[in-house]
Write a structure and sequence with these properties.
Distance between the termini: 98 Å
Helix content: 25-40%
Radius of gyration: 42 Å
Structural class: alpha/beta
Shape: rod-shaped
């Protein structure tokens, strides 16, 4: 548009069409982003709540695992009349040892062997046998034994879990003592 002394001049040809096109493209163009502070605060609050719940759930899992571990490893009391002494019983049965898990490298984990001259005895694999059968087999071989009872989720009560020395290892001297780790079965739920 041009200004003239008598007022505005008429539009030049095509200028009006260009102005209309510019206004339409401005109106139809992208809108400015709207920031919703309340929505952002809700998302942040949910995220904090989720993290707090996950932390609480993790703490509960750790506590539950510790509790189960405590009761799974809890020693089983000796049977009435059983003696935790290490002296040999009069009837020739195996000696019961205090209940629990053998300590690696400890004095009660591996019984001492009596070293005698002569040929060694090949110790059979006793794992999986009933304790009475393992006792009888060891007595028949001229060996003594010590029993340690242990809570085991996988082996039924009265089954030999393992022995020290292990069966099939090097021969043992006659009169040696063999440690039998015997299962007491799954722990009580009380």
């Amino acid at each position: 548009m041009r200004n003239t002394p008598s007022g505005p001049a008429p539009f030049e040809p095509g200028l009006e069409a260009e102005l209309r096109a510019a206004m339409v493209s401005f109106v139809d163009g992208p809108t400015a982003p709207v920031v919703d502070a309340a929505a952002i605060e809700r998302v942040v609050s949910r995220s904090r709540t989720r993290r707090a719940l996950l932390g609480t759930a993790a703490a509960c899992c750790v506590l539950a695992c510790a509790t189960v571990g405590f009761f799974a490893l809890k020693p089983v009391p000796l049977a009435p009349g059983a003696s935790p002494s290490l002296s040999s019983p009069a009837n020739g049965a195996c000696t019961p040892l205090a209940t629990g898990t053998p300590k690696s490298g400890g004095a009660d984990a591996t019984p001492t062997r009596v070293q005698t001259a002569g040929a060694g005895i090949a110790l059979p694999d006793l794992a999986g046998m009933p304790v009475e059968q393992a006792e009888s087999l060891l007595r028949g071989l001229g060996l003594s034994c010590t029993i340690m009872r242990h809570t085991d989720w996988n082996a039924p009560a009265g089954q030999v879990i393992s022995s020290a020395p292990r069966g099939g290892a090097e021969p043992v001297a006659p009169g040696s003592s063999v440690l039998l780790l015997v299962s007491t079965g799954k722990p009580d739920r009380t």
